Amino acid sequence: MLTDAQARKAAPRDKPYKLSDSGGLYLYVAPTGLRSWRMKFRFQNKEKLLTFGPYPEVPLSEARQRRDDARRQLRDNEDPSGARAKSKATKDAERLERARKLSFEQLARTWHGLQSPRWAPVHADDVITSLSRDVFPDLGDRALDEIDAPAVLATLRKVEARGSIETARRLRQRISAVFAYAISEGFASNDPAAIVTKALKPLPKKGKQPALVDIESLRSVLIAAEASGASPVTKMASRLLALTAVRPAVVRGVSWDEFEGIDWGGDAIGPGMPVWRVPAARMKLVLDRKDEESFEHIVPLSWQAVDVLREVRRLTGRGSLVFPGQRHAHRPLSENAIGYLYNRVGYHGRHVPHGWRAAFSTIMNERHRPDRAIIDLMLAHVPGNKVEAAYNRAQHMTRRRELAQEWANLLMEGMANAGALLDGPRR
Question: Which residues contact residue 374 at a Cβ distance below 8 angstroms, ignoring those fewer than 6 apart?
Answer without folding.
Answer: 396, 399, 400, 403
